[in-house]
């Protein structure tokens, strides 16, 4: 299926810091199509000083405890964007009636959120694999329409999709030490056998792999694997690159971001 980034300004959600693709599903009439909208979120980062309190021999034993610990550890892009604004004034959050952020403003927001997450919350992409495996962190923090990507999702991304995703997350300082993990395209996924795995969404993608042998899944994993989420929905439109479709995509992501903000505060 052909996909492309919606637009740099609207496809990169202000609320979720991710990317949106459209792929043509079927033709309804000459000027109208059913499109599959594919959204990939910014990483949900763990507050490692909270996360590490319950690992190894102290790992939660009930589903309620697991979900509570995942929630206490999770930092969403929307929460960080608003929480960091006071001390990172370069962050731009449009007010009511104001135009959406530009490409340059999006890039600055991503970098500022990445820096703030590290400096203020010691956030690193060091999730506990067993926690990612046991808890639907995507659905819990971003809303029920979001989920962990699976192996089919990864395989469905064309080289062009991957190039656009990489370009969307290529900011002037994406290679800085505090940002490399934030912009990582190595992600947690659900493998075809149901087990947790690691995938590569970059243009030079490597095959999806299982958690390496010998790794204790109840201990945080220091390999720069990001917890990104995916949402796939069908929409009808006359032009997937037109402003109307963009507004719908940005608005939908904004609603999910509001959910995340409400549930991810300190």
Mean pLDDT: 79
Beta-strand percentage? Answer: 15-25%
Percent in helix: 25-40%
- The radius of gyration is 18 Å
- End-to-end distance, in Å? 41 Å
The arrangement of helices and strands along the chain is EHEEEHHEHHHHHHEEEEH
- Major sheet summary line: 4 strands, antiparallel
Please identify the structural class as seen in this structure.
Answer: alpha+beta
**What's the β-strand tally?**
9
Could you say which overall geometry the principal axes of the C-alpha atoms support?
Answer: globular
Number of domains: 1
Low-confidence stretches: 1-16, 22-29, 239-266
Discrete helix count: 10
Spatial arrangement of strands, main beta sheet: 1-2-3-9
Fold blueprint:
Layout lengths: L2 E3 L2 H4 L7 E11 L2 E9 L4 E2 L1 H4 L11 H11 E2 L1 H8 L18 H19 L7 H6 L2 H6 L8 H6 L2 H10 L17 E5 L5 E5 L8 E2 L19 E8 L5 H21 L3
Antiparallel strand pairs: 1-2, 2-3, 3-9, 4-5, 6-7, 7-8
Descriptive terms for the model:
single chain; 266 residues; alpha+beta; 4-stranded antiparallel sheet; 3-stranded antiparallel sheet; 10 helices; 9 strands; 36% helix; globular; disordered N terminus
Structural account:
The protein is α+β, with helices and mostly antiparallel strands and 266 residues long. The protein has one domain (3-263). Helix content is 36%, strand content 18%. Mean pLDDT is 79; it is low at 1-16, 22-29 and 239-266.
Question: What is shown here, in short?
Answer:
The chain has 266 residues and is α+β, with helices and mostly antiparallel strands. The protein contains 10 helices and 9 strands. Helix 4 crosses helix 5.
């Amino acid at each position: 299926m052909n996909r492309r980034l919606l637009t740099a300004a609207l496809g990169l959600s202000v609320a979720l810091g991710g990317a949106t693709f459209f792929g043509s599903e079927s033709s309804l009439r000459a000027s109208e199509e059913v499109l599959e909208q594919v959204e990939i979120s910014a990483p949900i980062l763990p507050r490692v000083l909270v996360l590490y309190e319950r690992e190894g021999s102290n790992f939660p034993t009930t589903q309620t405890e697991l979900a509570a610990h995942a929630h206490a550890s999770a930092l969403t892009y929307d929460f960080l964007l608003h929480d960091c604004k006071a001390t990172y004034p370069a962050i731009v959050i449009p007010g009511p009636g104001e135009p959406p952020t530009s490409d340059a403003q999006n890039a600055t927001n991503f970098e500022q959120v990445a820096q703030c997450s590290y400096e203020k919350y010691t956030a690193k992409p060091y999730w506990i694999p067993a926690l990612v495996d046991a808890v639907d962190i995507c659905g819990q923090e971003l809303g029920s329409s979001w989920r962990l990507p699976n192996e089919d999702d990864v395989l469905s991304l064309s080289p062009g999709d991957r190039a656009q995703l990489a370009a969307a997350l290529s900011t002037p300082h994406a290679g800085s030490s505090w940002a490399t993990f934030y912009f990582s395209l190595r992600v947690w996924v659900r493998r075809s056998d149901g087990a947790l795995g690691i995938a590569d969404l970059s243009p030079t993608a490597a095959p999806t792999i299982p958690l390496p042998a010998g790794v204790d899944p109840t201990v945080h994993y220091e390999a720069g694997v990001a917890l990104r989420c995916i949402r796939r929905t069908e929409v009808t439109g006359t032009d997937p690159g037109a402003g109307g479709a963009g507004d719908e995509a940005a608005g939908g992501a904004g609603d999910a971001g509001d959910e995340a903000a409400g549930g991810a505060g300190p």
